[in-house]
C-alpha cells in the first residue's frame, strides 16, 4: 500500500498536466510503437 501511495503522489504533476491540457492523449500508443519498432530493428540488425 505504501508503494502505491508513493507512486500516485509521484505522478501528481503529470496527472495535473494531463487534466489541464486537452491536447495530451490518454494513451501512449505512438511512443510504445516507436519503442517497439526500434527494438525490432536492433534485434534484426537494422539499427
Describe this structure in words.
It is flat, with a radius of gyration of 16 Å. It is built from three helices and no strands. The chain has 47 residues and is mostly helical. The mean pLDDT is 88. It has helices spanning 2-10, 12-20, 29-44.
Outline:
The chain is mainly α and 47 residues long. It has helices at residues 2-10, 12-20, 29-44.
Radius of gyration from the CA trace?
16 Å
Identify low-pLDDT runs.
none
Give the beta-strand count.
Answer: 0
Strand content: under 5%
Structural class: mainly alpha
The major pleated sheet works out as: none
Average pLDDT value?
A: 88
What percentage of residues falls in helices of 4 or more residues?
A: over 70%
From the spread of the alpha carbons, the general shape counts as flat
Order of helices and strands: HHH
Number of helices: 3
What is this structure's SSE topology?
Blueprint: H1 2-10, H2 12-20, H3 29-44
Overview features:
single chain; 47 residues; mainly alpha; 3 helices; flat
Amino acid at each position: 500500500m505504501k508503494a502505491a501511495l508513493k507512486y500516485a503522489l509521484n505522478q501528481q504533476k503529470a496527472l495535473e498536466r494531463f487534466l489541464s491540457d486537452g491536447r495530451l492523449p490518454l494513451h501512449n500508443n505512438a511512443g510504445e510503437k516507436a519503442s517497439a519498432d526500434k527494438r525490432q530493428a536492433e534485434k534484426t540488425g537494422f539499427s
